[in-house]
Queue: 4 jobs
Job 1
Amino acid sequence: MSSMFSAKPRGRPVDRLSLIHRHLHNRPIVEINTPFSTERISQPSEDIPWLPPTRASSEFLPPLQSRSIVKMSQQPEHPTLLIPGPIEFDDAVLQSMSHYSESHVGPAFVATFGETLSMLRKLFQTTNEKSQPFVISGSGTLGWDLVAANLVEPGDEVLVLHTGYFADSFADCFEVYKAKPTQLKAPIGDRPQLDEIEKVLKEKKYRAITVTHVDTSTGVLSEIKALSELVHRVSPDTLVVVDAVCSVGSEEIQFDNWNLDVVLTASQKGIGCPAGLSIMMVSDRAIERFKARKTPPGSYFASFKNWLPIMQSYEAKKPAYFATPSPQLIHALHTSLTQILSRPLEERFAAHKKVSQQVKDHVSKLGLKQLASKPENQANGMTAIYLPEGVTPPDVLPLLAKKGVVFAGGLHKQIAQRYIRFGHMGVSVVDDQRRGDIKKALDALDASIAEVKSS
C-alpha cells in the first residue's frame, strides 16, 4: 500500500483526551464578541439542581438533601430563574406552546397572529395605522439585522449610544452591512449625556441614532423621551432606533408620543414568552425611508421587502407566506400579551418600579453597590450588583443555585469577574405575592454573601 495511506501513530488515549480537553477549557482561546465568551467563566458548572430536558422523574434528580428547589405552579420543580432573560413563564403561556399542529396559513392561526400583531400596538402604545408591528422567528439579535439591512445603506453614518456590551454588538452589525457606526461612550454604569449627544449630532449628518433602553450587561436605563426630543430638534432627519430587548414589558415605552421610529425587542424577557421571536415596531417615517432606498436591502431573510406585506396581511386576517412562522410560539405570545393587556399598563410598570426599588434597597443594606450608581440610570427589570472585594461570580453563583435561585454572571468584558446580575421582571414581579420569587432570591443572596464572607 502506498505510504500516503499509511496510518500515523494515534498516540495514547490520555494524549488524545488532553487535546480534546484543550477545546473544552473554560477560558476562550480567542476572545470573541459574544456574551458566551465573557459570561461562561462566571457560570457555576457544579452543584446546580438539574432536570433532564425530556423527563422530570425523580430517578434523574440529585438526592433531595443536596438540592433546594421549590414547587412553583404546575411546572416541574426547578430552580427559580432570575436572570435578565429568559425569565420565569406563566403556566398559561407555557400551555399555549402545546397547541396542536395547524397550518400557518389556516384561518384559525391567521386570526391568532393578526390579533397578536394588533395587541403589540397597544403594548408599544401606538395608534398610528401606518406604523407596522413585526413578529419574526429569531432572537432579539435579528432586530439589529432588520434595522441595518433595511434602514441604512452602505456608507451611511450611524450614531450608536454606548451603555454596555450591546452597543458594541449593534455597531458590529452595522459594519457588516457597510454602514459607518460611531460610538458615543460613557463610563461603565453611566450613559451619554444629552449635551454630549447634541454636540455630536451637530458635527455630521447621521442616518440613524441607536440607543439601548436597558443594557443587559450593565443594568443601565437610558432616557428615551428626552433623547428623541433632542434628535428631532437638532437632527430631524435622523431615525430614532431603540434596542428595547430588555425593557419592553418592564419599562414604559410610548411609541407615538415619544416620536420613535423603531423599537426592537424579543419574546423571552419582559414580555414573558419563551425565546424564539424577534419583535419590532416600525414607524411610517422609517417605512417610507426604506421605500426610498437607493440600493436593495442587504439581506434576504431580514428584508422588509419580503416581510412587510406578510405582516400587513396577517394583521388584516389574511393568509400570507414568505417564511414559515412558529405557530406554537405565536400562541404563547398571544397568551402573554392577553395577560399583560388585561390590566392597565401603568399598573405593570408601577409594579416593576416597586419591586426594583425593593431589590436595590436590599442590595444597599447588604453594603453592595450597583454598576448603575445613579438612580436615574437604574433599570426596573434588572439589577447589576458589584460583589465584595475579592469575591467573584464563581464564588457566589453556585451557592445561590444550591438555594434554588439562578442569577447571571457578569457580562461586560472589562469587569465580568466583579459582578452578578439579578433579573426581576414578568411573572416574578406581577405575580410575586403568590410565587414569592423576589423574597426567595433576596434571602438566598443574603445567605450566599454571608457564606462567602465567612469562608
Job 2
Amino acid sequence: MNSLLAFLSPLLPFAASLVFLLLFLEQISYLKKKRSVPGPPLVLPFVGNAIPLVRNPARFWEIQASLAKSSGVGFSVNYIAGNFIVFIRDTELSHKIFANVRSDAMNLVGHPFGKKLFGEDNLIYMLGQKHKDLRRRIAPNFTPKALSTYTALQQIIILKHLKLWEQKSSESSPKPIPLRYFARDLNLETSQMVFVGPYLAEKVREKFRVDYNIFNVGLMKLPIDLPGTGFRNAKLAVDRLVEVLADCAEKSKRKMKKEEEPTCLIDFWMQDTVKELEAAAAAGEPEPVHTSNFELGLYLFDFLFAAQDASTSSLLWAVSLLDSHPEVVDKVREEVKSIWSPESDTLISSEQLSEMKYTQAVAREVVRYRAPATVVPHVAAAEFPLTDSYTIPKGAIVFPSAYESSFQGFVEPERFDPERFSEERQEDRIFKRNFLAFGAGSHQCVGQRYALNQLVLFIAMFCTLLDFKRHISDGCDEIAFNPTICPKDDCMVSISRRCPRFPNLSLQ
C-alpha cells in the first residue's frame, strides 16, 4: 500500500490540474454558447443546475421565464447534466421552433431523456415523409364516428370513478381525499378502454397500471441507467407496456379481418391497415411500414403517454378552478341541465356535447390557464438562427414554453375567464397563436379533440352529479410537476352526491 501511495503521490498534482482544466474548459464552452443571453454566469461542473431542476421544477422554470421576460429578448439559457439548454418564452420564437422540426434543424424529443425511455422509433421522433405517412394512417382514429364511440366509453368510465370518489370521500369524512391519485386511475382506465379496451383482460389491466406508474416515477429521475434505479425500472416497464399493446394490435387485426364493427381506437386504426396488409401479401410484397405489431405497440404507448398525464393535470386544475369560481359552476350546471338529465339514464350524445358551448369554453380556459405540458423539449440537430443576433448551438436542448405563451396576448391573461372563448369575444381565434397547449406545426397533438371531449364530459358530469369542496391550505395551488403540472397538495377535496341517484349508463 505504501509503495502504491508513493507511486501515485507525484501524479496527484497532474490529476488535479487535469480536472481543473476540464472544469475550466466546460465553463468556457458554456459561456461561449451563452454569449450575452440571460442565464447563470457560472454553473456547477458536469451537473449544472440539474439538482435545482429536479428538486423544484416549477421554481426552476419560473426563474428561466423571469430572465427571458425581464431581458426583453424572449428567451434564456442554462446548463443541465452536461446539456446546454435554451428556454423560450416568446410565442413567435416558439412557433419558429415548432415550424422547423426536421432532420437539419429541430428534433422533437418530448422529454429531455425521452429517447432512452421510449426508444428511437417512436412517433415523437419521426420526421419528414415517414412522419407524414404515419399521421395519415392515424387520421381515421379521430373521425366524428370514432370520437362518438369514444365519448360513450369515456362517460361510462367517468361515472364509474365519480361513484368511487363519492364513496371514498364518504369513508374518509371529514378528511378530504387527494384527487390526483384517483384522477390518474380514471384517466388510465379511460385510455385503456378507449385505445384497446376489449383486448385487455382484468388481470392484465392491473399489471398495466402498476407498470405505467413505474414509468411515471422514472420520468422524474435523472437518466442513471443502472440496475435498480428508477430510470432503469421505467425503461423495463415501457418494454412490458409496449409488449402488451402490441398483443392488443394483433388481436384487433384479427377482429377487423372479420369486418366487425370497431369498438375502440385500435379497431378504427386497423380497419384500413388489414386491407393494406392483405393487398401486400397478395402481391407478394413486404408488409407496409408502420403496420408491425411492435411498431403499433410503440405508437399506442405514445398515445397513452400523451393522453394520460396531460388529462390528469387538466382534471385536477378543473376541480381547483371550479371550486374557486362558483359562478362558473352555476353556469355549467344550468347549461347541462338544459341539455342532459341524469335521470334519463342515457349517454350524452355527440350532438348534446356540441351544444354545451359554455362548458366547452370552461374546458378550453382550464387548458389555457394551466397548460399541462408546460414545455416541449426539442434538440437542435444543427446550429439554428433563433434571432438575428443569436444562433442556438448544435446539440442544445430547446424548450418552447406552451405555459408562458398562454399568458401572452389574451385579455387579462392572469384571470380565469371562460367567457374569453365565447362567440362574442372569440379570443381563441384572435389569439390563436398563443394557445399552444396542444403544440403547433407538424407535430401538433392529433388527439386534441379527444382530449377536450374528455375534459368537457368530466366537467359536465362532475358538476351535475356531485357537490364538492376544495380543502384550502397554504400553497395548495402552487404548481408541482408529476410529470405534468398539478396542484401542490394533490388537489384535496371533499365530495358528496348532489343528484337524487346516479344515472344508469350503458353502451347501446
Job 3
Amino acid sequence: MSDVVPPEVRPKPAVPAKPPNVAPSPSNSFPPQGPGIGGGGSGISAPPPSGIPVPIGSHGPGHGGSHSVGHGVGHGVGHGGGPAAAHSGGHGHGGSHSSSGGSTLLGYIGIDTIIEQMRKKTMKTGFDFNIMVVGHSGLGKSTLVNTLFKSQVSRKSTGWARDEKIPKTIEIKSVSHVIEEGGVKMKLTVVDTPGFGDQINNDNCWEPISKFINEQYEKFLKEEVNITRKKRIPDTRVHCCLYFISPTGHSLRQLDIEFMKRLSHSVNIIPVIAKADTLTVEERQEFKQRVRKELEMSGIEFYPQKEFDEDMEDKSDNDKIRVSGSPLSYAMPFAVVGSDKEYQVNGKRVLGRKTAWGIVEVENPNHCEFAQLRDFLIRSHLQDLKEVTHNIHYETYRAKRLNENGGLHPIPSSDTQESNL
C-alpha cells in the first residue's frame, strides 16, 4: 500500500512576491478615456493611489461612463483610497442629462402648428375691409376702386350693365361685395361720397363725411358695451380713405388741405393724384413733390404715420413711401390711372385707357403708379390699416365718448339692451 499524502498537508506552490507600490499597466487595466471628460486635461485618467486595478465599466476613477459628463473625473480621483471613494466623488458631481443645466427639446411638440390653426380660424370667419373714396366728381373714384379689386364693387345696382355710364353719386352710400380669391373670402364695402367740393359754397362740406365716420365708431361702441353682445361685432368702421387730388399740376386747393387736416386724426387718409395720364412725367414728379411739401407745411400726417411704426423694419419700409426721395422713387401721393376696360397690346389683354397717341396701361409701372398703390393698399398694409383703425382712431373716439359720460356704466336692463351712451 503506497503512501498517500492528504491534500491538507500538501505543500503549496511558491507564489512570487509582488513588487510593492507597482501599479498595473495602463494598457491592461486603465484604457484611455475620451478627451476632455471631467476636465482632466490629458484625457487619460490616473490610477488610484492604492494601485488596485479597477475593471472596465465600473465606477472608478474618471467615472466617464454613462453617469456623468460633468465633473465626475476630476473629483472622483484622489479623495480617498480605492474605488469606493472614486464612486462617491463621481456621483456627487455628475449629471445624467445635460452639463449645461438647461432643458433639451427631445422630440417634436407641434408649436409651429399655431399659425395653421390661426389660418383655419380666420378662413372660416373671413375678413372685412371698408374703404371710402372722396374727391371731385369726374376724377374716376369709382372706376379706380373697381380696378383695384378687378370687380364691379362700386355703385353696384340691379340692372346696371358693364358698358353703361356710372351715375353720379348723390348721397353717401355703402355698397358691399364679397370677393373670393384662393379660398379667402373678404367682404369689401365701398363708401361712395357726394361730389365733394362741387358746390359753389363749400363751407363745412366735410362735415357729412366726418359725421358718417363717427357714426360707424358709435355703432361699434354700442355693440361693445351691451351685456349680451354678439360674438363677432359687425365692423362697418372706415379703415381707409382714398382722397383724390385733381391733377392741376400747380398746388393743393385750400379745400383739400382743410379736409385732410380735419379728418386725418379720425381715419387713415391716403392721398392719390387722379388721372395722372393728363400730366407729363416731369409735371407729375414736380406736382408730387409740391403736394408733399404743402402737406408737411400744413402739419397733415397721412397714412402711414411715423408714430405708428412698430419696429425698424416697418420704419424702413414706410420711409420709402413717406420721404420725397428722388424723382424716380414711388412715394406718396401715388399718381394713378384707373380703367375697367381691356385692350390688346403686344398680343396681351391689358387694362388701360385709349388716347389719341396710344394706350395708357394701368398696371404698367412706366405709365402710372397704380401697381404700387395696389401693392401698398392690399398686399402689404391692408391688415395694418385695420389695426391702426381699431387701436388708434377707434380707441381715441371711445375714450372721448366714455369721458363725456363719466365712464362706462352698466346697461340698466337686459331687456332693452341699449347703451347709455
Job 4
Amino acid sequence: MRRFHPAWAVAAVTFVALLGAAGFRATPSVMLQPLHDEFGWSLGTISAAVSVNLLLYGLTAPFAAALMNRFGIRRVAMAALLLVSAGSGLTLWMTQSWQLMLCWGVLVGLGTGSLALGFVATIANRWFVRHRGIVIGVLTAAGATGNLIFLPVLSRIVESDGWRTAALTVSVAALLVVPLIFWRLRDHPADLNMPALGATEIVMPAKPAGGAAGNALRALRDAAKTRPFWLLAGGFAICGATTNGLVGTHFIPAAHDHGMPQTTAAGLLALVGLFDIAGTIASGWLTDRVDSRILLGAYYALRGLSLLALPSLFAATAHPSMLIFILFYGLDWVATVPPTVTLCREYFGESGAIVFGWVFASHQFGAAAAATAAGLVRDQFGNYTMAWYVAGGLAILGAVLSLMLYAGKHLPAVDELTAVRP
C-alpha cells in the first residue's frame, strides 16, 4: 500500500490551475476605474463586459464537465488556460468596448468557466471517496487564494505601470501553469491502476455515449424535473449575485466613492479572500459532518445580515467596523460551495458533477445580473446603497430556499423519479 495517494498530487495541481485561472477574474474590480478614465466608457458599459464574462463562466461549466468526461480533464484544462492567457493578453491592443466584450467577456469567460467549480466537482468525485468534502473546500479556496495573491499586486501594478501591464502579468501567469498541468494532472485513478482515495476497487471509467453537449443537456433535462434542482439553483443564483456580481465587482469603486484609496479597497477585498480560504476549508470539514441543507441556510442568512449592514460602514479609512465586516463576510464568501456540490452528488448520483455545472451556471446568471444592475444603479443614483440592501434581502431569501430543501429532505432522489444518464 502506498502511503501517499496520487489523488493528493492531482488535487495540488488542480489547486494551482484554479489559482492561475483566478488571476484574471481578480482584475475587473481594479480595472473598472482605469478603463473608465482612459476610454471614457461608462461603468455600466464596462460592467456589461464583466457580466458577459460571468455568464460564460457559468454557462461553460456543465459543458466543460461533459467535455472532461469525453476527452479527459488534462486536455480541457490546458486548453482553458490557453484561452485565459490569450484573452488577457489581447486586451493590450483593444480600443473599442466591443473588443473588451470579446477578450474580457468571451475568451476569458470560456477559459475560466472550464476551470470553474464544475472542474472542482469532477476532480473531487473521481479521485476522492474519503475526505471529499474537505478537498472540495480546499479547491474552492483556490479562487480566494488567487484574489489574495493577485488583487494587491495587480492594484499596485495598475497604479504604478497601468492596466496593460497588469493584464500582461495575468496572461503570463496563466500560461506558466500549462506545462504543470501536462506533467502531473491525470484524468482518472484507473489510469494509474489505482482506486480513488478511500475506495477499495478500481473503477474503469466508461466513455459516455453521445456528444458532450448532448450529455450536458440531457443531465439538465432530467435534473430540471426535480424540486431539489430548482431550490439549489435558486439559492446558488443568489449566491452569485451577492458575491462575484456585486461585492467582487463593485466593492472597490463603492469604497472609492467614499474617499477610500483604490489600493486600500483592493487590500480589503484581498482580505475577504484570505478569510474565505479559512471559511471554505472549514465549510468542507463541516460538510463531512453536518447536514448540508442546514449549513446552506445558515450561510445565506448570515451573509444577508452582513450585506444589510455594509452601506453604513463605508468611509475614507478602513475603520474597525469595516474590518469586522470583512472578517465576517469573508468567512462566508464561498462557504456555500462544498455543501452544494455534496447535495448535487446526493440527489443526482454520477451525473452530480454535470448537474452541479448547471447549478453553477445559475450562480453566474445571478452574478451577471447583479454586476450590470449595480453598475446601472451607480450611474443612475450616484451611489450603490440600493444595491447593497437588495442583495441583503436576496441572501435571506436564499436561506429560506435552503431550509425548504431541509423540510423536503425525504423527497425521493432523482433516480427514483427519472433515470439520470451519466
